[in-house]
Amino acid sequence: MSNTAQRANKLFVQTFGTTADDLYRAPGRVNLIGEHTDYNDGFVLPAAINFHTIIAVKQRDDDKFRAVSDAFPGKIHTWHFGHEGTTDPDDTWVKYLKGFTAAVCASGLPAKGMDLAVVSNVPLGAGLSSSAALELAFGTALNDASQLRLSPLAVAQMAQRGENQYVGCACGIMDQMISAMGEEEHALLIDCEDLDSEPVPIPESLSLIIVNSNVPRGLVDSEYNLRREQCEQVAEHFGVESLRHLDLRTLENAKEELPEVCYRRARHVLSENRRTQNAAHALEAGNIARLSELMAQSHQSMRDDFEITVPEIDKLVEIIDAVVGDRGGVRMTGGGFGGCVVALVDHDLTDAVVEAVERQYHTATGLEASVYLCSASQGASRLDEELY
Ligand code: GAF
After folding, report:
1. Beta bridge partners of residue 47, listed in sequence order
2. Is the CB of 334 under 6 A from ligand 1?
3. Exposed/middle/buried for residue 43 (C-beta within 10 Å: 0-12, 13-18, 19+)
4. What ipTM was assigned to the predicted interfaces of this complex?
5. Terminal-to-terminal C-alpha distance of the chain
6. Looking at residue 388, what is its pLDDT?
7. Which end of the chain, N or C, is surrounded by fewer C-beta atoms within 10 Å?
8. In the predicted model, what is the mean pLDDT of residues 265-287?
9. Rounded distance, CA 34 to CA 271, Å?
10. 174 Cβ below 6 A of ligand 1
11. What is the mean pLDDT of the chain?
12. Residue 260 and residue 251 in contact, taking contact as beta carbons nearer than 8 Å
């Protein structure tokens, strides 16, 4: 049994004085390209990563939930199905679980309560979707225990609904969908309009490196929701349902009609959609030089048009790009305002990338970066491991 699974079991026994029935796991994610495109019905290319949230669960006969997390020790959160109340400041992590049960209840499905213990090695607040991993591990457990008969995609949609309506973050579907449906050694090209997805193999010759800037992320939710509103404003201006239905030429021709900042937001989204589809083709064809170019353009667009990068992240990209050249790609990954960069580079360059980050990042920023050497992993599931 993995160390994280053992810790979840142990926490369950210590908290509830009995053993759990089952263990569920769900991964965090890294997005290779396609940022802030999901809520515009566009394209994304994420991969689930080998960092997981594991939940030990035992079903109850009533409608009560009791939840504990080793990252926030000392408090057992309790609520009843359909009576989640409003979020309160104490609810830090548990709001994602309450959001899920609130969404299940709002959709008219019945569910039984559970006792549960959460343990995770997904870095928190680093833009690697620790919250989606939590939602999907919990949602997959509840789906089984209460026999909701939801597909992995429907569990992901339920989790997104919970986050939108209960937690108050207007996120798209990417994080939940990849945590539910990720595949080993593959990224997933997702069309966020019809939710079709296509696995794209990550060539064996490439290393998947994530570097955490360790910049504390502030104002993330408010800036995120503001970006979404600006995109919606442009869609409304052109009378289309979403930016997916606008083309770059129409946007360019009418740019004077828009506030300059909204024009740039839309230009990022429209060009990022194109880059994402092209990057999936480049990855599939093993054309790493092209991938490198597209990831570089994506980063510039996030920095200059969408304005979601910070100087420390730009520095990391610069450091890694100088080592890698056209033998790999590097860009910020995730919602922005801190967090991580992702680099997909020729194996032979892995050590050089790590050394360059260690040598230059602290001197340039005063911060220590954390480097995670990752692999693309499978989506949420019940663990078939022995509980003892
Ligand atoms: C966050 C959101 F949750 C996603 O839906 C997505 O919009 C992403 O930021 C940016 O691409 O992770």
Report:
1. 30
2. yes
3. buried
4. 0.99
5. 9
6. 43
7. C
8. 98
9. 10
10. yes
11. 96
12. no
Q: How far is the CA of 48 from the centre of ligand 1 (A)?
A: 14
**Residue 36 C-beta-side C-alpha neighbours within 13 Å:** 32
Pick the residue whose CA is nearest to atom 5 on ligand 1. 172
Dist. CA 363 → ligand 1 center (Å)? 30
Say how many CA atoms lie within 13 Å of 181 toward its Cβ. Answer: 25
Q: Is 41 a catalytic residue?
A: no
Residue type at position 264: R
Q: Which atom of ligand 1 is nearest to the CA of 38?
A: 7
Q: What is the share, in percent, of the chain residues with pLDDT greater than 70?
A: 98
Report the distance separating Cα 164 and Cα 115, nearest Å.
25
From 175, 177, 307, give the residue whose CB has the most ligand 1 atoms within 8 Å, as the site to mutate: 175
Burial 194-222 (b: 16+ CB within 10 A, else e): eeebebbebeeebbbbbbbbbbebeebee
Mean pLDDT calculated for residue range 136-158: 98
- Tokens (6 digits) for 290: 């092209």
The candidate with the shortest Cα–Cα distance to 317, out of 270, 370, 353, is: 353
